Each structure stands twice: as structure tokens, then as C-alpha cells.
Predict the structure.
Amino acid sequence: MKVLITGGAGFLGSHITDYMIKQGHHVTCMDNLVTGSKENIQHLFGNPQFSFVNQDVTNFIHVPGKIDAVLHFASPASPVDYLKIPIPTLKVGSLGTHKTLGLAKEKKAIFMIASTSEVYGDPLINPQNEKYWGNVNPVGPRGVYDEAKRFAEAMTMAYHRYHKMPVRILRIFNTYGPRMRLKDGRAIPNFVTQAIKGSPITVYGDGSQTRSLCYVDDLVRGIYKLLLSNMNEPVNIGNPEEITLMELAETVKSLVKSKSKIVLKPLPVDDPKVRCPDITLAKKSLKWEPQVSLKEGLAKTIPYFRKALKES
Ligand code: UDP
């Protein structure tokens, strides 16, 4: 296949790019490097299966030649980032989805949108299955990400229904692994770098909120299976191993063998109290489930952060 991945220089985008290239596909990676980085794709320059285009996907996209699949993964994904750049976040989820859908239609390509567990907002049911409509505050600070992704899903379904396009709607739950930025601001980069440096580990709120964390390799396998499936409806891809943030801080501290103190900081506005994917659909339809436990995944991720900190 010839694949276009927007956000291909980001954390997830670059891992998907690597996976696709290993499977023998050709990847054009499109990124404006706002939160992505050339370092994530440096090893691919010179590879005939790879090309890079520095472009903002909220503007008209022209890509010459054949494309079999368009994967729209461009977007800030850390709450810290999307609170800092709210308008580009809204634009890449809305205008960027429209432009990439238009391109996929023109090329008769499969379209995949990287959606999110944030479409469920601060969920009133736990775990969340794909039929749940969510509990999102549209005018709260997180609304810029959540509503952009909800719009992206609506737009994608409209193209599927009206233009009969094959689409894939991937609802990604919290994911971690190598290539996350040191200053990404999300829980794992913060906790791991704080633990390594011996500085206080900052747990927001009382630490009783939960998340369910998926190691990036598991997620990428799931994404690939979804792409090759014929599922046009949303599918949750995530690890259902649910943990409180306090437990996560303690786990990281003990795996790093750190002497850091755990300190409590104010909870961000509208921070979801629980989050856990119901992956019944992915298990049944894609024959996919995660294989890497949190402890195994952290053991693969901590050395990456140690090295990145040394080089920073
Ligand atoms: N969090 C925390 N300390 C940090 C960073 C995040 O306790 O230094 C909490 C945050 O309040 C949330 C959870 O960790 O409850 C996951 O936050 P993250 O930013 O990783 O992603 P989210 O799931 O909120 O999109």
C-alpha cells in the first residue's frame, strides 16, 4: 500500500510509520512539527519506502500519485499542549479532518481517523463501550480537543454514509512508550522523569482518578488490524488494565528505584474521574488484545527516558 500519515513525526505517528514500513508499505509522513519532531523519523530518511512533507493539514493538501490509505493522526494529544494551542487543536481536528477526508475521497483511499477516549469526556459509565455517547463539557478547556475529535468522527461518518467511503474510526485510550517528549506533560513522562531526577512526583487531585494505559506496540498492532478490517464504526483500542494515578505514581517510583516524594497538586479542570476501555468489540472483530502489562511496558519505557534526560 501507499499510505499517507498525518502527524507521522509524532509519538504515535512515527511508531505507525515504522510498523507500516516493516510490513512493506510506502509511507508519506506529513507533519508541521508543532508537537512532532524530526528526531522520531530521522532513521527513515534515505529509505525508499519513506518520504516526508512538512505541511499544515488544515490547508488544502495536494499529494501526487496513488494513495491507498490516509491515516489522520495529526493533533496535539497532551492536555498541556492543547490547552496551550487551543485553536490549532480545534482546526486540525475539524478542518484537518475535512481536508484529509477530501484527499482520501479523491484518491479512493481508505480513511482512518485517530479519535480518542476523550469523546467519552468525564464518563458516567465505566468501562466505556463504543455505544456510549459520552459526557463532554463543550465549553470547558478540554472541549477544544474533545469536540474537535467528536466533530472529526461525525464528519468521517458523513463521508462514509454520503460518499460510501471506507472509513476506520479508532478510539485511542491512554498510550505510552518511547518517543514521548520529556516535557509532554502527561502522567507517564512526568512521573518517570521526576522519579529519575529524584524530584517530587506530582499527582494531581487526590490520585484516586483512574486511567488504563496501553503500551505503544500493542496499540500499533491494533491500529494495523483495524485498518485491514472492514469495520466502519468506532472501535476502542486500549488496555483495560485500570489503575489509580496514585498507584501509577507508586509503581513508577518503585520500578525506577527512586527516592522521590509523591506530592499532591490541584486537579486540572474537567479531568475525567475514571477511564477504561471496553475492548469486547476489538477482541471479537479484530482478534486483538494487548499483550504487554503495565510493568513490562514501563520497563521498556524507563530506559528511553533515562537516555533522553541524559542527552537533554
Ligand atoms: N496527572 C497527574 N500528574 C501529572 C500529570 C497528569 O496526576 O504530572 C494526572 C491527570 O490529572 C489525569 C491523569 O494523570 O488524571 C492522566 O493525565 P494525562 O495528562 O496523562 O492524560 P489524560 O488522560 O488526562 O488525557
Remarks:
- The first strand starts at residue 2 and ends at 6.
